[in-house]
Amino acid sequence: MGLHRFHPTPSGRMGTLWALSSIRNAALVEFGSMGHMLYGRATLKRMGKDPDCKLYSTHINESDIAMGETNRLTRAIADIALRDQPRVIFVLPSTIPEMIGTDLSALCKELQTSYPHVRLLPFEAGGFNIELHRGVQETLLLLATTLPLDVPPTPNPTFNLIGSCTDLFQFNADTQEIVRMMEGAFGLKPLCIMTSDTSVEDIEHMGGAHINLVIRREGLSAACHLQQQFGTPLVEGRPYGMQGTYSWLEQIAQILDKPINQSFILQEQAEARPIMEIAPGFFSHQKKTVKLSIGGHADVVAGILTYACSELGLTPDLCWCDSPAMATEDLPYWQEAQWSQTITNRHQGLLMASGEVLTWAGRNNLAMQIANPSRGWQMYPYSPPYMGFRGAMNLATMWMNEVVRIL
Amino acid sequence: MPVLHDNMLTHLKKLSTLQSNKGVHFLTPAAIPGSHCPMNAAARLAGSIQGLSSLIIGTQECAYYSRLVLREPYGKAGELHWMYVLDANEVVFGCREGLNQALIEMDQAGTKAILLIVTCLPDLIGEDMEAIIHELQPKLAARLISISAPHFACNGHPSGIWRTLEAMAGIMQQCTIIPHSANLLGLHAASASEIPLLTSLSAAGVKLRGLGPDSTLDEFLSAPDAAINIVLSPYMAPLAKRMANDFSTPFVYLHDKYSIDDIDTAYARIGEILDLDFGDAFTKGRNALKKAQERADVNLSELSFFATDTSLDPIPLSAYLSTQGMKPLLLHIEEFYQEDRQWAQALHTQGHDPLVCHRVNNLAEVSVFEMLKPAFNLGSVPPSLKQKISHVDQLHKMNGTFGHERTTWLLDKIMQALGTPAADLSKEVM
């Protein structure tokens, strides 16, 4: 860790809180100082999610710490259970209980008998060496292993979308595009959008889905568990580009043994044609090679870059990811020292990254943002997506306009 | 919504038994959304004082979320607002070595003064910032100050503000005192032209320096040249006390004075220190307040109230209102200051000993209002009770203002809320 001039990588605890905050019919209580929850809530709103889960904090004082007292948590759970009557109360430690080793699992087990109608579910992605993505991964896995009920497959085919969480930039828009495409291509409706648009009941019934779509690697362990428990097949990947999206749909078709609705595809292709007829030629006819530098979540970076290079003929430039656990030789993890020294206002070419990186590089066009932290408020719910057919059109148009603007 | 049990308030203390923030308990058990932490307040303040850099020391959470208020790592006047995040190893063994390197790097980047904001975790593990500063300061050009800002030591955020302001005294230097000069600690620029004390001081040729969030580092550093500190905010009181100790700068509190006698006494003391005769400069304001009090008298007598607005300094205010016949039942305490004891005693002498609490969930408070049945609230009330309980809100407008005019304004607002225009003033003076 050490000295930071820019946002540090969020902790696993933050990943857990952000992932759980969107689950309806649940409450979340954090055992720790209340300031943290206040800022978590403010950040979620900026990321585009007014928390559906009721977010509580117990607060903590010196006596609680010195004596190992947990009465605040006990009282808070009693109050929440009585007042809100949620199906589930998620219980999280903040940094102080994590450090002094408060055993939330044991406490929840002890308290559970007093609340037969409310499930107490402790989360402990709290270690000081656990970062955002692992927090999200452990959260999705714990949800998948604890809440789903033993249900039969739904009469009409359905799907779960695993990994759509608030920490991913444009999660709303991308999810809406996948839902639209699944309906258009297969007539499938979502059973559970885990976790950005879901409820406790949706998660309980997610075993009834016919396929699990995993749109980030953090969701894979949860999907594998569901595959073991319910036999639900999975497709992993983020659909970017026209061809990329079609290939992704083909994988799904193969697994579902169900043909893609070709009239939907023809309609999508027809809609995209004016852009796709121009874009590759536009980029190849520029005097200077159009290069794309891109940094963010490894799956997002890889997906967008593949589309840009293989379908539109852009040239990859600097590429990096935001998690050391996801780094590869081709896609290294860059800490702020690396990106801030490399990506300056003298950097040439297209740049897609977090709002913070774009601002540092003197790029005024925040439409090129693909990652958090953001500079602004992502509150408009109908932004154009990056994924899917419409995402392909959006990206191509955006890049063309950016070329006109800066090159 | 379930009605809470009759014994739900037995966990709260009476004001007379309160010794510190520790005795202020939550009104209801679970915070939603709760209060800001001292780190947030200190960071916001650091960001507004031109020339002051900051280093937030803590976990990823503290560092990440501090960017909600300190948005830029580089300020317009060369300030640096950076963060030091403890790793798993430093959580156990301390962060002294890494912190030293970080401060050297900030110093080399050319910063003038750095405020170290020590958050919950480094405070808990006992990282000795004073020792680090003592060891490192001689090697650095940048002046270092630190504040302890753990949220577990309090409920609200004010300690982040007053500790930062108090710490500024640590880098002030003794200077020659300018006889006819005064620091106005906590002055709101908007109110400066409307308050007779300030116009009188200006007319008498007193050099005035407002010190507050909008001041520059240089203005703070030169503050010891003033002949007096006039304190207009509770956040500034600790700075005034420290400057009295370190630089022998006398101070007069005005932020906690609401009654005619208390205000007159404070004004007289200011005149005495500055060797000024204010003549009848305050007569108009005094008479207006006197009339407001006379007209309010019947309406305020026996009027029970809560004070729940988080921006209030509720204990001295309640002490004054009790002299007008009002009966405090419950006070939200954002921060308990040592000076509050005298006002608590004054309330007790009047026969009042309200409950004290920290509010954290306005929806859950409905039962408290229904149980104690206040006739009035200084602050907003739950939506379901708006038609039943008279109240005034927007009370943050009183912050930084003072004197007869502030009290008149407040009485006027209370009387308006009760449906009876009280003061001669038909328009707001603030």
UniProtKB/TrEMBL annotation, chain A:
Origin: domain of life: Bacteria
SUPFAM superfamilies: Helical backbone' metal receptor (SSF53807)
Signal sequence residues: none
GO molecular function, one term: oxidoreductase activity
Residue ranges constituting the Nitrogenase/oxidoreductase component domain according to the UniProt record: 13-403
Gene3D superfamilies listed in its UniProt record: Nitrogenase molybdenum iron protein domain (3.40.50.1980)
Pfam family, one: Oxidored_nitro
CDD domains in the record: Oxidoreductase_nitrogenase
Protein name per Swiss-Prot or TrEMBL: Oxidoreductase/nitrogenase component 1
Organism name: Pelosinus fermentans JBW45
TrEMBL record, chain B:
Stretches assigned to the Nitrogenase/oxidoreductase component domain: 37-418
Top-level taxon: Bacteria
Pfam family, one: Oxidored_nitro
Stored InterPro entries: Nase/OxRdtase_comp1, Ni-siroh_cyclase_CfbD
Molecular function GO labels: oxidoreductase activity
Coiled coil (UniProt feature): none
Designated name of the protein: Oxidoreductase/nitrogenase component 1
Provenance organism: Pelosinus fermentans JBW45
